[in-house]
Amino acid sequence: MTITKDTLISDILKIAPNSAPLFHSIGMHCLGCAMASGETLEEACAVHGVDVDEFLEELNAYVE
Is residue 4 within 8 Å of residue 52, measured between CB atoms? Predict the structure, then answer.
C-alpha cells in the first residue's frame, strides 16, 4: 500500500506500526489520541509545521 497525503494516521499505524518512531521524530507524539484516528497525514503535518511532501517521501521509503 502506498501512503498518500489523504491516508489517515490511524490507517498508517495499522499497516506500518513500526513507523511510529518517524512520527515521534517530527513531534507527533499523540498517535493514539482521538484526533489521530480521523486526521489525514496532510492535516497532521500542517498542525505540526512539517512539510508533508518531504515526510511522505520518507515515510513511504521507510514502509517499503
Answer: no
15 within 8 A of 1, measured Cβ to Cβ: yes
Report the distance separating Cα 16 and Cα 37, nearest Å: 15
What pLDDT does 55 receive? 95
Helices (H) and strands (E) in the chain, counts: 5, 0
- Which pLDDT band, with edges at 50, 70 and 90, does 56 fall under? very high
What distance in Å separates the CA atoms of residue 64 and residue 59, rounded to the nearest whole number?
9
DSSP 8: B
- Domain chopping of the chain, boundaries: 9-63
Which pTM value belongs to this model? 0.84
Residue in 50, 28, 61, 20 with CA at minimum distance from that of residue 12:
20
